[in-house]
Amino acid sequence: MGYHLHLIAVPEAELREDGVWLAELFAASWDAWSGGEKSPDAVETVIEKDFFTLDHLLCGAEKHDIGPWLPASLLIFGGRPVYHPKYPDPYVLLTPEEVRVAADFIRRTAFEELWAVSGVELAASWGRPRAEVAEMLAGHYADLRDTYGRAAAEGRVVAKYFAF
83, 60, 81, 84: which is closest to 72 by C-alpha? Predict the structure, then answer.
């Protein structure tokens, strides 16, 4: 699949803040995910290509105005970088507290509320019917809500990998 965002919730006690370990975690998870062998206990999701648009929906066009510390900004790009010694792009980690804050935001904020603010603009920029773009983003939003909700309930860290 090339261009995607992969999120995995990891029990805090199992996490190693090491780029090599994270590379192995994501490689094993990707193999299971793409092979249809994902564990039912896994708390993870993959968003293909649309994560920049989803971030725009969550944070608005003027993301710098809301600040990197606010809950909406945690969901896609938020977190602390962890680097692999051979790769320039970092993995990103959210602490259990940041995961809880992000999960609370996405639980309390209806997709329709966000769509009402920037959905028309997003659909126009894609050149697709509004309903098609809304359906796609609503599906991603539901996946994020589930992943962050389960991760927060279990006190997990969320690790992110951006494949470009």
Answer: 60
Whole-number Å distance between alpha carbons of 10 and 115: 30
pLDDT above 70: residue 65:
no
Read off the tokens for 97. 């507290």
Mean local confidence (pLDDT), 87-99? 96
Q: Output the average pLDDT for the chain.
A: 90
| 4, 46 contact by CB (below 8 A) | yes
Strand order in the sheet with 80-82: 44-48, 4-11, 156-163, 91-94, 80-82
**pTM for the complete prediction?**
0.92
Number of Cβ within 10 Å of residue 139's Cβ equals 13
C-alpha closest to that of 143 among 117, 106, 114 = 106
C-alpha closest to that of 93 among 142, 151, 32: 151
pLDDT digits (tens, 9 = 90+) for 34-64: 877 777 778 999 999 999 999 999 987 665 4
Whether 157 contacts 93, CB under 8 Å: yes
